[in-house]
Amino acid sequence: MPSLPTCDTLLLKLETGVLHITLNRPDSRNAMSLAMVAELRAVLAAARDDRSLRALVLRGAGGHFCAGGDIKDMASARSAGAAAYRELNRAFGSLLEEAQCVPQVLIAVLEGAVLGGGFGLACVSDIAIAGADAKFGLPETSLGVIPAQIAPFVVKRIGLTQTRRLALTAARFNGAEAERLGLVHFSEADEHAIERRLDETLEQIRQCAPGANAATKALLLASDSEPLDALLDQAAEQFAAAVTGDEGSEGTLAFVQKRAPNWAQ
After folding, report:
1. Do the Cβ atoms of 38 and 27 come closer than 8 Å?
2. Could you tell me where in the chain the CATH 1.10.12.10 domains are found?
3. Which residue ranges traverse the bilayer (predicted)?
4. Among the listed residues 132, 142, 123, 122, the one whose alpha carbon sits nearest the alpha carbon of residue 23
5. Are 113 and 139 in contact (CB under 8 A)?
6. Hey, what CATH class is 10-206 in?
């Protein structure tokens, strides 16, 4: 695996093909500082091309996922004017784009505060597991600002109608409601249930070929923007390459031999 960057705001743990990334600013409920954004982007870049990594698990330290943007960074940018605010804001949007497109399965474990930027990170995950008592919300308008970089990702996750309601009221809601909205896939009663669900999800991911998962994820994301005819032509080419490639050959042989494929052993 490519060497991971040294981080001051993140804890990194590599375990059986899974990279656990923990936002580690518990004193601020893991508020998203510019330094944290830069470190997350560097970690994602280092992990991107490593096919031995099957999944990335993103969570927060100290009982909270992420309480949004760092007010201290915003205050520091004030003296530099609008250009500094644009840079600060757009850097987070770039992080969301990059997180959404990593070839590995991105799992978000959401506890405590999941606000603003944390809400945005939840929306770009492939699989989201929340505590039933987690606190979700888009508080930006209650602070006199807008969810500028987050909004497009929220709309794609839960739809325009619900996003309008939540963004224009700054309403707070729990993990059970987040599951009802389709923001998260699972709402679990307590920490033990969250860990069981995470372990079960990782075991399911390990049954899937990593190359096939990466190509499938890219295809699903492209389906949101590519013309259908061109997308299906491209998908047919990818299918032919997959079925005749190493993973496809191994998968079909394993099926015939009634054994687990090599990636699931």
Report:
1. no
2. 210-264
3. none
4. 122
5. no
6. alpha beta
Is pTM beyond 0.85? Reply is yes
Q: What residue has token string 């590599």?
A: 14
Architecture of the domain spanning 210-264: Orthogonal Bundle (1.10)
Identify the bridge partners of residue 105 per DSSP, sorted by sequence position. Answer: 55
Cβ-proximal residues to 73 (8 Å cutoff; 6+ apart), any chain? 33, 34, 88
Residue 225: C-alpha distances to residues 156, 191, 222, 228, 229 (Å):
11, 37, 6, 9, 12
Tell me the pLDDT of the chain (265 aa) as tens digits: 558 889 999 999 999 899 999 999 999 999 999 999 999 999 999 999 888 899 999 999 999 999 998 877 666 666 667 787 888 889 999 999 999 999 999 999 999 999 999 999 999 999 999 999 999 999 999 999 999 999 999 999 999 999 999 999 999 999 999 999 999 999 999 999 999 999 999 999 999 999 999 999 999 999 988 899 999 999 999 989 998 999 989 998 999 999 999 988 6
127-131 and 186-188 strand pairing: parallel
Residue for token pair 């939540």: 166
Both tokens of 172, joined, read 């707070």
Residues of the chain with CATH 3.90.226.10: 10-206
> Which H/E stretch holds residue 111?
none
